[in-house]
Amino acid sequence: MLIGDVARRSGVSARMLRHYESLGLVRPTGRSEAGYREYSSEDIRRIFHIESLRSLGLSLREVGLALDDPGFTPSGLVDDLIRQTRERIAAETELLTRLRRIDAAEPAGWEDVLRTVALLQALGSESAGKRQRAALSSAEEGPVPVEALAEAALSETDPNVAGALRWALARSGDTGLPLLAEGLGSPVAEVRRRAVQSIAEIPGGAATALLRQALTNSDVVVRRSAALALGTRGVANAVPTLIDMIVEGANDVDAADALSALASDPASTDQIATGLVGRLARGDVEASARRRLTQALADIPGTTTSRALADLSNDDDRAVALTATYLLTLRGAQ
Question: What element of type H or E holds 277?
Fold first, then answer.
């Protein structure tokens, strides 16, 4: 079969067939009387083998080794191809993500594009200082790729940089919340905790709704962070978790402050007082926890609290009794 016929049947151009021949990959076994190349069925089969191996990503040199080296084993080469393909996919995915972020920033011109690219590069820098400066400047320098800020906040380990990223996210509104919501469900504890910290700094009802959901998170640290944030937002759902924190001695001062803030709403006062008094009445609460609960009553107004303090002033635990007596004195002086 002449080269033109082979090209039509195989789909490999005559030029490429000549290139294969120059590399020694395939040589026509005969010549016609006129001196034209003639390919046998075995030659054509080899051409199809070459194309099949090329489709896997092998170079022409690797194809030659695979076909001509009797001792060639494909496993090592296939492993290399898998690794190279994964690296290529990762690089292409990273590029696609970067392009989407630039597009989401809605650049008005090439200056905006270049500025966004510079910001993305700075956010990925190994230097904590560069990452922090990028976060602080992001809200001041035009379009902000909020997804990039959210992803950076979920992965940032430096506390100063993390604070700057949360600040930048809060200034960007609630557009980063979907990605932060995914972070709440991460199998990695640190990612979950960074997510709730970031959400806590974003104002608005959408962030508050996510914090309410976080109160039932399996991660106790996430639940506590959500409760503290909800307390400052006046959400009474946080009360049980805040009281748990006081009992457990986990950020108990902050939890008591959050309860005090919630108690400024008369609708929540009785719930808070009843919750604290109920815990004090339980026999399984340790002495140190009872003292913290008594101290937490200090800023809770209402008759329920006053009655509880009067009872506690006669408590068997002297520290509890003295604290309750002192708090009653303060309430009487007000």
Answer: helix 266-281
Q: Give the per-residue pLDDT at 25.
A: 87
**255: in domain:** yes
CB 171 within 8 A of CB 139: yes
Q: Tens digit of pLDDT for each residue in 31-84?
A: 777 777 788 888 888 888 888 888 888 888 888 888 887 777 777 777 888 888
* DSSP one-letter string for 202-249: S-SHHHHHHHHHHTT-S-HHHHHHHHHHHHHTT-GGGHHHHHHHHHHT
The boundaries of the domain holding residue 55 are: 3-72
Contacts of 242 (CB under 8 A, 6+ apart): 227, 228, 231, 255, 256, 258, 259, 262
Question: H-helix or E-strand containing 84?
Answer: helix 74-104
* Residue 320 per-residue DSSP state: H
Could you say which of 22, 55, 72 is where a domain stops?
Answer: 72
219 burial via Cβ count (<10 Å: 0-12, 13-18, 19+)? middle
| Residue 175: partners with Cβ closer than 8 Å, 6 or more residues away | 146
Q: Is residue 226 part of a domain?
A: no
Q: Please, are residues 81 and 56 in contact by the beta-carbon 8 Å criterion? A: yes
User: What is the domain-level CATH number for residue 36?
Assistant: 1.10.1660.10
**Closest C-alpha to 46, from 70, 31, 71, 63:** 63
* Structure tokens belonging to residue 108: 């008005």
Residue found by looking up tokens 């959408």 in the block? 206
Q: How many domains does the chain divide into?
A: 2
Q: Choose the final residue of a domain: 57, 72, 87.
A: 72
180 within 8 A of 154, measured Cβ to Cβ: yes
Q: Which residues contact 217 (CB under 8 A, 6 or more apart)?
A: 184, 192, 196, 223, 226
Would you say residue 214 lies in a domain?
no
The pTM for the full model equals: 0.69
How many Cβ atoms from other residues are within 10 Å of residue 52's Cβ? 11
